[in-house]
């Protein structure tokens, strides 16, 4: 899509971005972000904002958070030199291994941080939504770790294609509520979680899983997930002595990508590439690429880029990846694209699955289908930039996707 900003506005906002001026005091990332919630949630959001202002800068809270990351999550996750892919692609490729974090994906960083925050705020129960199931599993595990009741909303379509994760959530003690309304995927699950929160805003904490939603959620998720980029930057420098030419990450709502990108924003020599779910084509309803094909609007609490028709009706999405199958994107990503700091491209299902198979064969690593979009986009970049140093965020492992992979790649009947 064309930027909604003029060139002068774009330059001014890029300068503010590099000064760490976003979000501003209204929760805005330039024109994006903000807080669009029903009046019943305003007091809960205000309490959350006060808690964020207090605890996310509090030394004792941060010490407890980082102790959980080190002793329970298993951080730092490794940075692996991908020798096989490097040879095949004619580039030097490294993988930031969030697939090796506890519960198998980056989601655990955010979940343990938010559940810790919820306890500080006096919440009695946790609710969450999930698409691919990884955020649901992570939140269920964090609640078990910190002894909090947990309920997870999940679209019926996603429950069918991510059945192993449904079982994991139940074993970890969470109640899993199937959502059969709307498109029965992540968007419908977020709607149901918001309805639950409205019914008990005082005692319930909504642990939102991506860098979306009303302010301060995009900020909370970015701050908790930025551990990925801080570790990756330090590890890359330690292993190579220089920074990468390109860092690449998949984008749905954008939590993994904003966590990897943010600590590199001021490194002007580092290019950044976000890869969205291109589904089966560029037409409305054929993909989940909100940055490539979206227009500005309000969805689930914030102003960002959305897949909608000319009447503002949100459209159903299409992707082989449950975790990227969402019609919006985090507001900070909308700003990063609008000011030109990050480039975003779409990767179709077939290319993502091909990259997944190549990673299995060349590296002995089964990545999540979500992460495979980043692999496919990075491979395109490598073909155009021989010898480039490329860092890829491997957001999660692919065990959860075996049902889809057995059908799509192995030709087995479901």
Throw out a few tags for this protein.
17 helices, four-stranded parallel beta sheet, 44% helix, 414 residues
Commentary on this structure:
The protein is an alpha/beta fold. The chain has helices spanning 7-18, 42-55, 59-73, 83-89, 107-120, 134-146, 156-161, 163-171, 186-199, 217-225, 227-240, 255-261, 290-293, 331-338, 349-363, 369-384, 402-408, and strands at residues 28-29, 32-33, 79-81, 92-97, 125-130, 150-155, 175-179, 204-207, 246-251, 271-279, 295-299, 302-306, 343-348, 389-394. The strands form four sheets. The protein has a six-stranded mixed beta sheet, sandwiched between helices. Strands 7-6-5-8 form a four-stranded parallel beta sheet, sandwiched between helices. A two-stranded antiparallel sheet has the order 1-2. Helix 6 runs parallel beside helix 8, helix 11 packs across helix 12 and helix 15 (349-363) crosses helix 16 (369-384). The longest helix is centred in the last third of the chain and has 16 residues, at 369-384.
Low-confidence stretches: none
Proportion of β residues? 15-25%
**What strand order characterises the main sheet?**
3-4-14-9-10-13
Structural class: alpha/beta
Helix content: 40-55%
Number of strands: 14
Cα-to-Cα separation, first versus last residue: 38 Å
Rg, Å, rounded:
20 Å
Largest sheet: 6 strands, mixed
Q: Tell the overall outline.
A: globular
With helices defined by DSSP (H or I, 4 residues minimum), what is the helix count? 17
What do the pLDDT scores average to? 94
């Amino acid at each position: 899509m064309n930027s909604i900003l003029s060139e002068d506005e774009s330059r001014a906002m890029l300068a503010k971005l590099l000064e760490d001026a976003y979000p501003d005091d209204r929760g805005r990332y330039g024109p994006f972000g903000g807080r669009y919630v029903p009046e019943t949630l305003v007091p809960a959001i205000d309490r959350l904002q006060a808690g964020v202002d207090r605890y996310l800068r509090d030394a004792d809270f941060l010490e407890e958070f980082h102790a959980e990351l080190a002793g329970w999550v298993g951080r730092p996750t490794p940075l692996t030199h991908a020798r096989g892919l490097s040879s095949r692609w004619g580039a030097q490729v490294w993988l930031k291994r969030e697939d090796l974090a506890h519960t198998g994906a980056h989601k655990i960083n955010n979940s343990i941080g938010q559940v810790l925050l919820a306890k500080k705020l006096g919440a009695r129960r946790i609710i969450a939504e999930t698409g691919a199931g990884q955020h649901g599993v992570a939140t269920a595990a964090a609640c078990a770790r910190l002894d909090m009741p947990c309920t997870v909303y999940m679209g019926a379509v996603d429950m069918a294609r991510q059945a192993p994760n449904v079982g994991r959530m139940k074993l970890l003690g969470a109640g899993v509520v199937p959502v059969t309304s709307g498109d029965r995927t992540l968007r419908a699950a977020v709607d149901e979680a918001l309805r639950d929160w409205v019914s008990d805003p005082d005692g319930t904490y909504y642990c939102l899983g991506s860098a979306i939603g009303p302010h301060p959620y995009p900020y909370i998720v970015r701050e908790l997930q930025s551990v990925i980029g801080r570790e990756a930057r330090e590890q890359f420098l330690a292993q190579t002595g220089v920074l990468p030419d390109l860092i690449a990450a998949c984008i749905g709502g954008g939590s993994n990508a904003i966590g990897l990108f943010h600590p590199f924003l001021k490194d002007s020599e580092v290019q950044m590439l976000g890869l969205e779910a291109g589904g089966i084509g560029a037409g409305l309803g054929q993909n989940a690429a909100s940055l490539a094909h979206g227009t500005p609007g309000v969805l689930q609490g914030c102003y960002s880029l959305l897949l909608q028709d000319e009447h503002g009706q949100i459209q159903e999405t299409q992707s082989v990846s449950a975790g990227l199958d969402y019609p919006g994107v985090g507001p900070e990503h909308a700003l990063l694209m609008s000011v030109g700091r990050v480039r975003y491209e779409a990767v179709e299902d077939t290319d993502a699955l091909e990259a997944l198979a190549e990673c299995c064969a060349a590296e002995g690593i089964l990545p999540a289908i979500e992460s495979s979009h980043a692999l496919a986009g990075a491979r395109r970049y490598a073909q155009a930039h021989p010898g480039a140093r490329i860092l890829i965020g491997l957001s999660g492992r692919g065990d959860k996707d075996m049902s889809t992979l057995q059908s799509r790649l192995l030709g087995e009947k479901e």
